[in-house]
Specification:
Chain lengths: ~325, ~300
């Protein structure tokens, strides 16, 4: 399941199945779960630069016919506001527009997405995100980041068997395969201000026995901070923190959610926040247990890798494993 | 057992398409039939603005509309509002769109057509044709792809799901779409390209057999079968609350109807042996099947 946060709701979407779960996070009432069947497609997460750090969910619905003809459609997820929290809807759109006239559109040949930096079409394929690529596999998801001057970067998450790649697209046309530790789309989080983009990635490494969280500065891809854990601790989610925006951190940093399954299979979550200062020791600047369960239960094994995300407003943690699904409130 | 493809209602009679022939059944239970050669690879059920429905079949690459003949017997007439190409393409004249059916295998198409829908709330970008693609007609749930086709979109959005493909329990009217999928009933807005699960509608051991939207698109009629005792229940459900915020648990939104089987079949054992095929949009009768026999079953909603 891929996890998205639309205003007031959390959406858990299967890529290959029509099932989609929506949780209303808008009020203090118990969190309600609704199950939808929705159209299928490759998800595109758009991080807008606005006050609430809200994100958008788009889909590229596509299939190829037996004669090689491609059918593709861009759709935006929103809530029809008949009554709060509304009915989940997907509307067909021509393009994902950004404030500097940049846009993401369907590739003219129908084989992927085309990034139009500042609204310009380019001749080469360097700004095309293909649905399938012989070197990096099939497209699993896209993350677009809008800064104060418009579209700043686009990340394509690609899967080839067990291998995962993240490809970064920048306005200067650079395409850099394999720049980051492989990770699922849920493991990538963004925080940005001015020209600065912080990105955290969590991934499972080695023989599946270790997890790693890394904080990058984009677009240089400079590593600011990293940490590894060993079992029984799992890093299930992380989020970048801009200096002075959360948890009293005075420098840029990262929040890491550690999960541990006890002998009785109950799972506990601990948030550790670190300042990204290479010279300092790696003790957390902040440590908070997360135990306020607002939906579901947290009981069962954490293996295989849990899918988890922290909401952009840093108020909720959503975790899904093969055996449980839960939403926890993160203390302010 | 008869393989029923679909049922369309027009006033006091219903047209039933099967793999062997077409049937016309009236509310009083009289059945007339006509056989045809070949197996249809596309079935189109169309709802008209006046509430009536028509049924078209594609046989050997040619589209025929099921008509009521001069002596009350059904017949097939060439035409039916669509230009039909050859496999694997089906060209929709209205949208100038071609559906490229992906698998190399032969694919059956079941199309719900709402083009005539006169609802002013619908706009050109809202899907008005829903096309179910699957491999075989099957009484059990099998995998199918549901396409949402709109006038403006260049491509088509779709969802893959499990549904009974023989007389598929799916209906669309006035921008609402409803279906029995994976043992649950779902209802949605066509423009949302999403259906929400009607939680709490079926009792334990009950599975939905058929769904129909009423003429105004305000209510949903469904028939549910209890797998423990084989009993069939018919329900009328208000749709609007389900499209709003939280799932309603108000029992007043549901009404259970009574089935009145033809006199010669009214023994309770017969009630268990019937398979509801489709409820009329008027809600006052349905067509059911008992082995190779088609039945007209009256539905009464007056009792509590």
């Amino acid at each position: 399941m891929k996890i998205f946060f639309l205003p007031s709701v959390c959406v858990l979407k299967e890529t290959l199945l029509a099932a989609t779960l929506v949780f209303d996070l808008s009020s203090d009432r118990p969190v309600q779960e609704k199950t939808y069947l929705t159209i299928q497609g490759i998800p595109i997460r758009v991080h807008r630069r606005n006050q609430n750090a809200e994100e958008e969910l788009w889909l590229m619905s596509s299939w190829s016919g037996q004669l090689g003809e491609r059918q593709a459609l861009l759709l935006r997820a929103h809530l029809l506001d008949t009554h709060r929290p509304g009915f989940l809807a997907f509307s067909g759109e021509n393009r994902i527009s950004f404030r500097d006239k940049s846009a993401i559109v369907l590739d003219r040949d129908g084989f992927g997405l085309q990034i139009l930096w500042k609204g310009q079409w380019t001749r080469g394929r360097e700004n095309v995100i293909p649905i399938s690529d012989p070197q990096t596999g099939s497209l699993d998801g896209v993350i677009a980041i809008e800064g104060k001057d418009g579209l700043q970067a686009v990340l394509a998450v690609r899967v080839w068997g067990e291998e995962r790649h993240i490809v970064l697209y920048k306005p200067d046309g650079m395409l850099m395969p394999r720049p980051f530790l492989g990770s699922r789309m849920n493991g990538i989080e963004i925080a940005h201000s001015g020209d600065k983009i912080l990105m955290s990635i969590v991934g499972n490494i080695g023989d599946g026995d270790k997890d790693k969280a890394t904080l990058f500065l984009l677009p240089e891809r400079r590593v600011l901070w990293e940490m590894e854990t060993k079992r029984p601790d799992h890093i299930c989610a992380a989020f970048p923190i801009l200096a002075g925006t959360w948890g009293g951190l005075q420098r840029d940093g990262i929040g890491v959610i550690l999960a541990r399954s006890a002998e009785d299979k109950s799972v506990s979550f601990l948030l550790q926040a670190f300042e990204a200062d290479a010279k300092a020791d790696k003790r957390p600047a902040l440590e908070i247990p997360i135990s306020n369960l607002v939906f579901g239960s947290a009981h069962g094994p954490l293996h295989p890798w849990p899918e988890a995300r922290v909401s952009p407003d840093r108020r909720f943690l959503v975790v899904e494993t093969a055996s449980f699904r839960c939403i926890l409130r993160i203390p302010a | 057992m008869l393989t029923v493809l679909d049922v369309a209602f027009n006033g006091n009679f219903a047209l039933v398409a099967t793999t062997e022939g077409i049937f016309l059944i009236s509310r009083d239970g009289k059945v007339r039939s006509r056989s045809f050669k070949g197996i249809p690879d596309a079935v189109i059920r169309r709802r008209h603005a006046n509430g009536s429905e028509t049924l078209s079949l594609r046989l050997g690459g040619v589209l025929y509309q099921v008509q009521s003949g001069p002596h009350g017997s059904p017949r097939l007439e060439r035409g039916g509002g669509f230009f039909a190409g050859t496999q694997p393409f089906l060209h929709f004249g209205f949208y100038m769109a071609s559906i490229d059916v992906a698998p190399l295998r032969n694919v059956q198409m079941h199309i719900l057509d709402n083009l005539d829908s006169s609802d002013p709330k619908l706009d050109p970008s809202d899907p008005k044709i829903f096309c179910l693609l699957f491999e075989n007609y099957d009484k059990q749930m099998s995998s199918a792809r549901l396409l949402f086709l709109s006038e403006e979109d260049r491509g088509h959005s779709y969802m893959d799901l499990d549904i009974r493909t023989e007389c598929p329990p799916i209906d669309a009217n006035r921008g609402i779409i409803a279906a029995a999928i994976m043992n649950s009933i779902w209802v949605g807005l066509a423009k949302a390209r999403a259906l929400v699960k009607l939680d709490g509608l079926t009792a334990e051991h009950e599975t939905p057999e058929t769904v129909t939207l009423d003429v105004l698109g305000q209510h949903l009629f469904c028939a549910l079968r209890n797998h423990r005792d084989g009993r069939i229940r018919v329900l009328r459900v208000q749709i609007e609350p389900w499209l709003n915020s939280a799932p309603p648990h108000d029992r007043h939104l549901l009404k259970e109807g009574a089935m009145e089987l033809p006199e010669n079949l009214s023994a309770s054992s017969s009630k268990r042996g019937i398979t509801p095929l489709r409820i009329a949009p008027s809600g006052d009768w349905m067509v059911a099947q008992m082995s190779d026999i088609l039945l007209a079953v009256s539905l009464n909603w007056e009792q509590s």
